[in-house]
Write a structure and sequence with these properties.
The complex is a heterodimer of chains A (about 475) and B (about 625). With about 475 residues, chain A is α/β, with parallel strands linked by helices. Chain A has helices at about 35-40, 95-105, 115-125, 130-140, 145-155, 155-180, 190-220, 235-245, 285-300, 315-325, 345-360, 375-395, 405-425, 430-450, 455-460, and strands at about 10-15, 25-30, 40-45, 50-60, 65-75, 85-90, 110, 225-230, 260-265, 270-275, 305-310, 330-335, 365-370. In chain A, the strands form two sheets. In chain A, strands 3-4-5-6-2-1-7 form a seven-stranded mixed beta sheet, with helices on one face. Mean pLDDT of chain A is about 75; it is low at about 1-5 and about 245-260. Classes of the chains: A alpha/beta (about 475), B alpha+beta (about 625).
Chain lengths: ~475, ~625
């Protein structure tokens, strides 16, 4: 039993996602975690209490077995929350989970609020807020690189970087304060220039850090790969073939795919989200117009665009792709349906089109592709991974900003510091420069954990889900 | 028992006098005890009032209805506005006062107040009412007992004071006044943590012995601005406008002091008390800043009725012969004749963290501490505490809440919050950097910030409050008028703007938008604005700052908003911090001992880190929030 004031109630929730799965974990935390579990747990053998035991959970009504389970016990304070924690691993069917939860609730446990396990861990000094945020990221991580970056944050590397930046800002502020406080202190022109440089370079450093967000987001949220092209060029066939799953309806009728469809997969160590869009074309059909609007949105938010053509693209198409390339989006040009090559003259036309595309968009990958050829799927996967590697290298840095809140603060503080540096150079009175620097320091404190506004703590825990 | 009063104030220095006057004005009967009637409101160091951050405090005291600003205005013999090049947030009025006249002025004021009985007698111990465990009176050195609902101790530097000059050391208060020898023991008997601080003062010399021909002269600034908002209408003319003079120490000064450093009581170990880092003695400056080869010396007048002048920057406790020799090394002072030697003074004071924000001893209801006894330094800091303690003592006896201490509202509140929350391990001097919202706490807007509060407390009388409201309205109306008057772009206008190094107008613009340009002052716009009303300069300055620095003020306001939220986040009285295992051990102990009223206050306690505050916030949040059981089993599985 712990001395935490939170330990009034023992909370319970599944810590694995809802829905069917092989196994599921139901987690309890609180002073009664062990006794509550004991009431409905029948060990297989009457061995001494061990850290993990196999056995059966029983229904509260007739004590009939519900499921065969493994129970793991973590006693306070050596658990994630710092309280007594019990993890019941059961079979993953919804009915089983529900029955076990119902038994525990009946016994007196209460359903955990979103983020409550982490909040208790925080309250018991097991994690700090930045670590709590990283846990949230780690839970959602689906690919190796993403997990590595979230783990780095959990270990506090990013925090250390933020703290160093903050210390450097405080040094600059101290010079300003000294000037303000002691009228007999005169500041020479060189000292002023030095101060201005100091503030400016700190601003640049933070700006650079904020720019790792693009790569950070790629790793954390995954790369958004959008399939783009006229209706009926085979977008859904590509998606289906590529992910090997029959998620989109494949027909020959233009405009069947009226909504965007996403599929998550791992590719070359990256998390990738393939987005299927409705055909982008002018239309009067209301429903289709909505689909077109959504696909335009998807293209705007894409990291990589798979541009699908059956024939030579128009100049307008190429111009549109060049514009997207200018927005740092990776482009893979795909000449589709070359399985129909038996059409007379088609082969030659394909060859010239491929050559023309390579010339028109030299920075793009160009491949010819058939949804029915297995090798082409690997070819396409290779082209996407190559594009991702490029972005990955462009943002190369030991540290990655993966959290949009962090990125926004960095961008804001960098802007304030750039402004302050110009103000110092322009000879603005130091009392006003100090106002800006203090404001910047306050914002930066939101990243170092030195900010004590209640909004921050609330935001972080409220974005957790139940069971975490 | 010789008498019973609402309030007894011990000490009639700057803190004690303000406390007595405020309490009397609020209708309380006050016994004001002083060691000698001939040294009330003494200015034993530089008779200077104001200065960086301190000037703001004097204006705040005045805005709340205190006396210091009015008295300093009456006895002003030199005026300067400091930090003009550093911006409006740190602009600070600083004056020299006619020292003895200032003291007489305060004495007169105290004598004129019918609710105050002014009595020359030394307080020796506190009377404790055992049933209430409260302080309920004072026994004097002669054994007489006076009772009261509350006692304010404002003992300055007099408790067990001793003076040190070189190797000489003797029991004495400042200016050879008698030290208070018995009260420290009574404070200790109450269980209060008494410790020792040290401060010092420079040499005073005879004016006629100084060779002014070698010195740089700094004239009193014109126009002089009054401290008191009551004096800002009409022409304010100081009693005198004396210059000060400036010289520098030399290599010879440095050599002399460093070669005699072993004879300095600071370095020989004679001085035990902790001195102010921000006001070091000259020998200390040479030791601590070895790269500074010379230091400023300001030669300042101390009054109209005396030849005695003050050598600012030469604070020292060196032996007398070294002090004599030191002057020989300084241009203009070679033949200066010393009238008072510089000295260090050690005194008992109380760790102010035993106080509540009302300046009341937490464990001894009825006992308030104000001024240097709380570890502060400076006349202004003392007066501010006296004023607040006086008000609170009366409010407590009437069952009213103490004055709300909001750091974003006044330097006075920053001072009190710093002392009682963080404490101080050296004589505490106010600095503008201690205030988080400096641009909001300007000297020009002290009345806007505090006069409504002074009125509500009962210290600002109706006529003065009515004048304040008129000012507030006039400034708001002028701002509206500036917004309404539109200037058309024509050649005359643009020629005028060009002459002010300002960009020409392309389209019609309001006067207000022109005033937002940093290069255009209100005065500079006068040729474009023939219809403008005649307003006092002081009012125009406030308007101008608010318009010029709007963007920066907005930044401070947004920071302040966050601050206020935490100040309003109350901590429950019954919180059991020892059970909050997320708090570090030190934080649990500090919070349990000090029991802050709000999360904001908690955040300023030494030993409480931001991580601890986050724990408190999350804890409060989960305490107040009813458990939401909206999640259904179906959703979870």
């Amino acid at each position: 039993m712990t001395d935490s004031q939170f330990a009034i109630e023992t909370i319970v929730a599944p810590s694995t996602p809802p829905g069917q799965s092989g196994l599921a974990v139901i987690r309890l935390s609180g002073p009664d975690a062990v006794t509550l579990t004991d009431r409905f747990f029948r060990p297989k053998r009457s061995h001494k209490r061990a850290a993990a035991m196999a056995g059966y959970t029983m229904s509260p009504g007739d004590f009939a077995d519900i499921d065969e389970v493994v129970v793991a016990v973590f006693l306070a304070p050596h658990s994630f929350t710092g309280e007594d924690v019990v993890e019941i691993t059961c079979h993953g069917g919804s009915a089983v989970k529900r029955a076990i939860l119902a038994a525990l609730l009946e016994a007196g446990a209460v359903i955990a609020e979103p983020g409550e396990f982490s909040r208790r861990a925080f309250m018991n000094g097991k994690i700090d807020l930045v670590q709590a945020e990283a846990i949230m990221d780690l839970i959602g991580s689906e690919a190796k690189r993403q997990a590595a970056s979230a783990y780095g944050q959990l270990k506090g590397r990013l925090s250390a970087e933020f703290k160093e930046a903050s210390a450097s800002l405080y040094r600059a502020m101290a010079s300003v304060e000294l000037m303000l406080e002691f009228p007999e202190h005169e500041m020479h022109a060189e000292a002023m220039a030095e101060l201005s440089d100091q503030v400016r370079s700190l601003g640049r450093m933070l700006e650079h850090l904020s720019q790792t967000y693009r790569r950070g987001r790629l790793i954390h949220d995954g790369a958004r790969v959008v399939i783009y092209g006229e209706p009926n060029v085979g977008k859904s066939s590509l998606l289906n073939a590529f992910i090997g799953m029959n998620r989109a309806i494949v027909t020959d009728i233009p405009g069947t795919t009226r909504d965007t469809i996403e599929h998550h997969l791992e590719l070359g160590g990256y998390k990738v989200i393939i987005v299927d869009t409705a055909g982008v074309r002018e239309t009067d059909d209301v429903i289709e117009r909505e689909g077109v609007r959504r696909s335009e949105e998807a293209v705007a938010g894409a990291d990589i665009i798979l541009a699908l053509f059956t024939d030579r693209p128009t100049e307008a198409d190429l111009a549109a792709l060049r514009a997207l390339q200018a927005e740092d989006k990776g482009i893979v040009l795909i000449l589709s349906k070359d399985d129909l090559l038996d059409t007379p003259g088609r082969q030659a036309r394909m060859e010239t089109t491929l050559a023309m595309l390579k010339q028109a968009l030299p920075a793009a990958s160009v491949i010819s592709y058939s949804a029915y050829r297995a090798d082409d799927q690997a070819l396409l996967a290779g082209a996407i991974a190559a594009r991702l590697d490029e972005t990955d290298k462009a943002g190369a840095s030991d540290l990655l900003v993966t959290n949009v809140r962090h990125k926004q603060v960095l961008v804001d503080v960098a802007a304030e510091l750039a402004e302050a540096a110009s103000e110092i150079s322009a000879g603005l009175t130091f009392d006003l420069v100090a106002v800006r620097l203090r404001h910047a320091a306050d914002r930066l404190a939101e990243l170092t954990g030195d900010d004590v506004s209640e909004m921050l703590a609330d935001t972080i825990f409220s974005s957790f889900c139940v069971g975490k | 028992m010789a008498g019973s009063y609402d309030l007894i104030v011990i000490g009639a220095g700057h803190a004690g006098s303000e406390a007595a006057l405020a309490a009397a004005k609020l209708g309380a009967t006050v016994l004001l005890l002083t060691m000698t009637l001939d040294a009330l409101a003494n200015l034993p160091c530089n008779p200077s009032i104001g200065g960086t951050a301190k000037g703001q405090i004097v204006r705040e005291i005045d805005a709340l209805g205190g006396a210091m600003g009015l008295l300093a205005d009456e006895q002003m013999i030199q005026f300067r506005m400091l930090n003009a090049s550093r911006g409006p947030a740190v602009l600070s009025p600083r004056t020299q006062t006619d020292r003895t006249a200032y003291q007489r002025g305060m004495k007169q004021r105290l004598e004129d107040e019918p609710n105050i009985r002014l009595l020359q007698q030394e307080a020796a111990s506190f009377i404790v009412n055992d049933t209430r465990s409260a302080v309920s009176g004072v026994r004097t050195k002669t054994g007489t007992i006076y009772l009261a609902s509350a006692v304010i101790l404002a003992s300055g530097t007099f408790l067990k004071a001793r003076v040190i000059i070189g190797e000489a050391i003797y029991d004495s208060g400042p200016d050879q006044l008698q030290p208070a020898t018995e009260l420290s023991a009574s404070l200790r008997a109450l269980g209060l943590p008494v410790r020792r601080f040290k401060t010092g003062t420079p040499v005073r010399v005879k004016r006629s012995s100084v060779d002014f021909s070698k010195l740089e002269q700094q004239d009193s600034e014109l126009p002089a601005y009054p401290f008191s908002f009551a004096n800002e209408l009409g022409d304010f003319t100081p009693k005198a406008e004396l210059p000060c003079h400036m010289t520098w120490t030399t290599d010879a000064t440095r050599e002399l002091l460093l070669s005699n450093i072993g004879r300095s009581p600071l370095y020989s170990g004679l001085i035990e008390g902790i001195g102010p880092r921000y006001c070091p003695s000259i020998e200390d400056k040479y030791v601590k800043f070895p790269n500074h080869l010379r230091h400023h010396v300001f030669i300042e007048p101390t009054g109209l009725d005396t030849e005695e002048i003050y050598l600012s920057g030469l604070s020292t406790s060196m032996p007398e012969d070294v002090q004599e020799d030191m002057l020989r090394t300084i241009p203009g002072l070679e033949k200066a004749e010393i009238m008072r030697f510089g000295y260090a003074i050690e005194y008992d004071n109380v760790d102010p963290t035993v106080l509540t924000h009302a300046l009341q001893v937490r464990d001894w209801p009825g006992l308030y501490l104000a001024g240097q006894v709380n570890g502060s330094s400076g006349y202004e800091e003392a007066a501010a505490q006296g004023l607040i303690a006086g008000i609170n003592a009366v409010r407590q006896m009437r069952g009213q809440d103490p004055v709300q201490i909001d750091r974003s509202q006044a330097y006075i509140f920053v001072l009190i919050d710093d002392l009682v929350s963080r404490g101080t391990n050296e004589p505490y001097r106010m600095m503008t950097s201690r205030a988080e919202y400096r641009l909001l706490l300007r000297q020009d807007n002290a009345d806007m910030r505090l006069t409504p509060l002074g009125h509500e407390l009962g210290l600002i009388e109706e006529t003065r409050f009515a004048r304040f409201l008129e000012k507030k309205t006039a400034i708001a109306e002028e701002r509206e008028r500036l917004q309404a008057v539109r200037i058309q772009p024509d050649e005359t206008v643009n020629a005028h703007l060009a002459s002010c190094s300002s960009a020409p107008l392309k389209a019609a613009a309001s006067l207000l938008s022109l005033l937002k340009r940093p290069e255009l002052s209100y005065d500079a716009l006068s040729p474009l604005d023939p219809e403008r009303p005649v307003l006092p300069q002081a009012w125009i300055r406030t308007l101008e700052y608010d318009v010029h620095y709007e963007g920066y003020i907005r930044l401070e306001m947004s920071r302040r908003k966050k601050f206020i939220e935490l100040e309003r986040r109350r901590l429950p009285d019954d919180a059991d911090y020892t059970a909050l295992s997320g708090l570090r051990l030190e934080a649990r102990q500090v919070l349990s001992a000090r029991r802050p009223a709000s999360v904001g206050q908690a955040s300023r306690l030494p030993g409480v880190t931001p991580a601890d505050i986050q724990v408190l916030l999350v804890w409060l949040e989960s305490r107040t929030r009813a458990r939401r059981l909206k999640t259904s089993l179906e959703d979870l599985t």
